[in-house]
Design a protein that fits this description.
rod-shaped, mainly beta, 28% strand, four-stranded antiparallel sheet
């Protein structure tokens, strides 16, 4: 609906309207009409915006788009932790593959501090030679924009776990995929399974393959996050 006001000589946009607050004329923030049952807001009208999806591949800050209203509109998050390392060989027997990272999801509205989101992506576990216990993947942590001491952790996606065994052959030596995760119209495609001797995991979140032939297990792949900024169309 387009709303105009008559100023005595022409129709003008409501943005030109002023009201007296007791000491000065100030801008009017909204205009309402009575529809017979209640007051209905007719100005300003909401400009519809499509959701904005961002894939986060490095640790750092993520700012919302200009139209996003803190405390009114929504943000959605998918995060996956880093993949675990594969185990190195023991006496020439191939070690187990690392597990993929785990997923976590979240939806919120209000952000404190600078009104942004900070993502710390989990590192992949580092493969080693021989009988060392394979390293787990790191956690992916998503927090709000407050100072780090006062911030709220919104999402904590756990890293994959290393497997301390040496199956020698078969699927137990493969670096595992975290799988895929869909949430609120977003889909994160996890890193695919790896099978080669000591092969590094596929990003995001894939586990490294176990190793034989006296070589190091594969490194796990780092984690990742997706953020969606989504308009609340119920509030104009």
């Amino acid at each position: 609906m387009s709303v105009k006001l008559w100023n005595g000589s022409t129709f003008v946009d409501p943005s030109a309207l002023k009201r007296w607050n007791g000491s000065a004329f100030v801008d009017v923030s909204a205009a309402y009409i009575w529809d017979g049952a209640g007051f209905v807001k007719v100005w300003p009208t909401l400009v519809l915006q499509d959701p904005v999806q961002v894939t986060v591949t490095a640790t750092g800050w993520q700012a919302p788009p200009a139209w996003w209203r803190n405390g009114i509109d929504f943000y959605d998050i998918i995060a996956v932790g880093g993949g675990a390392a594969g185990k190195g060989d023991v006496f020439g027997v191939t070690g187990a593959g690392g597990n993929g990272g785990s997923y976590a999801v979240y939806t919120g509205s209000a952000l404190t501090g600078n009104g942004q989101i900070h993502a710390t992506l989990g590192a992949g576990g580092v493969g080693q030679v021989g009988g060392a216990i394979p390293a787990n993947g790191g956690q992916t942590q998503i927090r709000d924009g407050a100072s780090s001491g006062a911030s709220t952790v919104l999402v904590l996606a756990q890293g994959g776990t290393g497997v301390n065994s040496n199956p020698g052959i078969g699927s137990g030596t493969y670096g595992k995929s975290p799988g895929n995760r869909s949430y609120q119209g977003m889909t994160m495609i996890g890193g695919a399974q790896v099978t080669g001797n000591g092969t590094n995991g596929n990003p995001p979140g894939g586990g490294g393959a176990g190793a034989g032939a006296f070589t190091a297990g594969g490194n796990g792949a780092p984690g990742r996050a997706m953020i969606q900024w989504r308009q609340n169309r119920e509030v104009t």
